[in-house]
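Consortium newsletter contribution from the modelling node. Members have asked for a concrete example of what our holo predictions look like. Here is one, prepared for the flavin-adenine dinucleotide complex that several groups have been discussing at recent meetings.
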Amino acid sequence: MGLYQLTIKDGKRHSAAAAFLVPILDRPNLTVQTGALVTRILFKGTSTIGVEYLHQGTLQQVYVNQEVILSAGVFDSPKLLMLSGIGNAEHLLPLNIPVIADLPGVGENLHDHPLVAVGYKSTQALPAIASTSNLVEAGLFLHSGKSKELAPDLQFLFSPVLWGSSDSAPDVSGSTFICCLINPQSRGTVTLQSANPTDIMSA
Ligand SMILES: Cc1cc2nc3c(=O)[nH]c(=O)nc-3n(C[C@H](O)[C@H](O)[C@H](O)COP(=O)(O)OP(=O)(O)OC[C@H]3O[C@@H](n4cnc5c(N)ncnc54)[C@H](O)[C@@H]3O)c2cc1C
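And here is the predicted structure:
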């Protein structure tokens, strides 16, 4: 157990963008395009050659010399792979998406960690939390003894604020203890509802 390590600069939380991207924005070999929705990865045969994206209502294509790194998060990464023709052919063909690679594992095997939070109102007003707080400041991993895995199966977290119960205002002093199952057995899937990149997926 212990206090979590945080990324802090000048007394404030510091994001990866502020730390690594903003200082090099004027590099001639770097273009940052915000407000863009990537719609698919472009292929020539089975090799990636670029990315297509929607920006201000117009479809744009950008081509690469070497590689495309796809890091769109847990739901949108498989979504973009499927929109680009990488996924289960039985799912893609009815949507008229040309199959580049028949990979049934795309969008499968999602794990999540369910948690239960118990909030306590404090009996006296507490000082305001620090501007450096991540709202979850300490944690504990432990093994329940019920799991066959060697790794811990439970995580406990401590938050110095009262998490959003319906009867608590944000300025009510309190704290929250959270218990989280980190070795869940259930598995989820995501699939496309349509070939339209602006549609959300089915989970
Ligand atoms: C409530 C919560 C608590 C968490 N706590 C922890 C923790 O304590 N420890 C831990 O290790 N991890 C934690 N995680 C998980 C962690 O946040 C993720 O694993 C991590 O952020 C994944 O990074 P990523 O860059 O792959 O994706 P993301 O951080 O999800 O970034 C993906 C980015 O891609 C953008 N994007 C998606 N689709 C498109 C598109 N089509 N076009 C353009 N842009 C697109 C999104 O807008 C987003 O900015 C937590 C997650 C949540 C939600």
